[in-house]
């Protein structure tokens, strides 16, 4: 058996203690202890998040921003406190720049439908990358089809790294918008979003960054990146599903028209005219996911208490060990070997379909992702119909990797 990662001298976090905070981890699947390595799809939730959501429904369930009674005031205070936590977590200038939505997909669609429809016209160019999630491809395709704009794509090499010289060649006076992923959900690649933003701004283009696979793994500072929009999903940051964040520069959000009408996004309504609310309410029509936002705030508290840098170091060491263990198995090939990557190991096994790999691992109690990962252009680039993906979270340990490696070896031997 491979030795534990020699790069780890002293644990940065007490993983055994942390695992006790996540009740879902302490169960059996098909008679085997659960090993959860599908964190890129969604992360598990600590007790503090679960209890915060339960407490909202048990003790002060109420609508926000509307009532003068105590429950409504409490709900409003907790909801807005969560917004403040997001502001600090991203180092945003103001809570006015923090919009609560359902997730990253809705955030991209909001920007497309508001900033995009207002500012992009026929002949303008939009740039995305070859490694984007479908959620950051389809909305821009829709906008291009509806406006006559042109969609350009930054290619990548076979390591899963964007070809920056090609990106520079794509940029011109027609480039109006660039939308790229911060970290790839399939390849694990961490893209140079600060450099991308700087180059795009030189030609006057605005930049959106999909941070769904970033904020849970390493520090994100939107002011340092310099982008114009940043989005992430709560359920990948140890928070609940159905809630996410769009951060945008205040001056841009002010100029953008609202996307949906009703509820909290208005100041006054007559049949002749509606006056819209200010930020951030202008983009939060209707009753929001109040418990979700509160839960997300507590997830941020949990991650902050552990230290995002500590989490990053732990996951980096664990990923190195996983890569070492998995690549020792005959027939296993890694897809995505960027110099700057982590947390995600996507792979093939010679002669074995990923769905068969996933089924065998499931019978061993191990949860991974199989399929096209909502990145079909990536599958096309690497000439595969699907992949198997093991992805790390802050609560994973070396034993998880050992169990997964043994199961993958069993799958490879069974089909050979």
Structural account:
- The chain is of the alpha/beta class and 416 residues long.
- It has helices spanning 15-19, 47-59, 70-90, 104-119, 138-147, 164-170, 193-202, 222-225, 250-255, 290-306, 308-327, 354-363, 376-382, 398-415, and strands at 28-29, 32-33, 35-36, 98-101, 125-129, 150-154, 175-181, 206-210, 229-233, 244-248, 266-269, 274-276, 332-335, 344-349, 366-367, 369-371, 387-391.
- The protein has two domains: 15-33 and 307-415, Aspartate Aminotransferase, domain 1, CATH 3.90.1150; 50-305, 3-Layer(aba) Sandwich (Aspartate Aminotransferase, domain 2), CATH 3.40.640.
- The chain is built from 14 helices and 17 strands.
- The strands form five sheets. It has a seven-stranded mixed sheet with strand order 4-10-9-8-7-5-6, sandwiched between helices. Strands 13-14-17-16 form a four-stranded antiparallel sheet, with helices on one face. A two-stranded antiparallel sheet has the order 1-2.
- Helix 2 (47-59) packs antiparallel against helix 10 and helix 12 crosses helix 14.
- The longest helix is centred in the N-terminal third of the chain and has 21 residues, at 70-90.
- The two termini are 22 Å apart.
